[in-house]
Each structure stands twice: as C-alpha cells, then as structure tokens.
Amino acid sequence: MFEHVSHSMEVIGITEEMRSDLWRVLSGILHLGNTAIVEADTVEGLKASIEEKRHAALAANMLGVPTEALIELLTLRRTTIRDQEIVIKLQKDEATFRRDAVAKALYASAFEWIVKCANDHLGFQEGETMPFIGVLDIFGFESFAVNGLEQVLINFANEYLQNVFNKQVRREIRSIFVHFLCSLVLFDYDKSLHPERFGQHFLNIFLYMCNPPPSLLLS
C-alpha cells in the first residue's frame, strides 16, 4: 500500500525529497499525538506538564523545531500587557486542546499541500474551470450488539443517501457515454432497490421483533 501511495505522489509531481519531507511531517504529527500531558504541582497550582519528553523530542526533530520551543508552545501562553510580556502556564485541559489543535492544523496543511500539487500537475489556474476529483464521505451501515429504532433510522437514512449518490453517478456516466458516442448497455434501474420501497419492510420487521408472537417466545 505504501509503495502505491508513494508512486501516486510521484505521478503528480511530488519528488522523492518532497515525499521525504511529507513523511517527516506526518511522523511528527503522530509523535505529537503520543505526547502525554499531565498535571504538575507548581507554585501556581496544578499546571500542564509533559510527562515524558521522548515523544515531544521526536516530534520536534521531525518538524524541525527545538524541543523546548515545542514544549513551550504546548504548555505556555504568552501575552503582552502595557509593553510587558506575561508568561502564563496552561491548565492540563488547555494544553491538551492546544496539542490536538496543532496536530490538526499540521495535518490540514499537509493535505492542502498535496491537493495543490495535484492541481499544479493538472495545470490548474485560479479562475479556470477544470475537472476535479471529489471525495464523498457517507456514513456506512452500522450494526452493534444491540440495535434499536434509532440505529434503524440512522442506517435507513445512510442507505437513502447512498442510493441518491448512486443514481446521480449513473446519470452522469450515461450522459458522458452518450456525448462521446460510446457504446453503452442501457439498463433499467431496479426500482425495488429504492429505500422508500422497502422502508415499510424495515418497519414491519422492527415491529415484529418488538412484539413477537407467543410461539416465537416459547421456542
């Protein structure tokens, strides 16, 4: 899998040196997430502290910053009052939130950079209308040890959204084939697959399981 990802990046113009920098950033994010923040007893009360600096040091090394600078970023807040800088030690919850926020910001920046590399490779210019790759994230079907009415409705809604997406994709693909005069085997969309058609069956099954007949209970 890693080789496929690396090759795909090479195809869109991300060089080996650029990929190496990206792996370092991602490694730094992972080590940053493993950096445990605990409470330490100080003269100012219980304040945030790095429990074990190994992951913080590794994260700092991967990101190319001094370890102490990273630790200060996570545990201290600096403010200026009347031209005087005040250093405030953060609470554990505040430091944890800051650590997670830094990790998310780094990951978002890395993702946007990859997208920019792909756009540049496609010759995208600001203001132009270009083909694009879209990612649609739909919640999958979920099944737990105990499933109630709420889960049935959630799964039904998810399947309905998936059905709408499938119909739209089929419609667009068909129009592309027709536009380029490609041979296309037409098919009738099976209406029995529409969620609104079998929604009543879901409800009937649910009601049946909630009020089973005596014979089922005795068995």
Describe the protein in words.
This protein has 2 domains: about 1-120, Myosin VI head, motor domain, U50 subdomain (Four Helix Bundle (Hemerythrin (Met), subunit A)); about 150-219, no CATH class. The two termini are about 50 Å apart. The chain is mostly helical and about 220 residues long. The protein contains 8 helices and 4 strands; from the N terminus they run H-H-E-E-H-H-E-E-H-H-H-H. The radius of gyration is 27 Å and the shape is flat. The strands form 2 sheets. The protein has a two-stranded antiparallel sheet with strand order 1-2. Strands 3-4 form a two-stranded antiparallel ribbon. Helix 2 (about 15-35) packs antiparallel against helix 5. The chain has helices spanning about 1-10, 15-35, 55-65, 65-75, 90-120, 150-180, 195-210, 215-219; strands at about 35-40, 45-50, 75-80, 85-90.
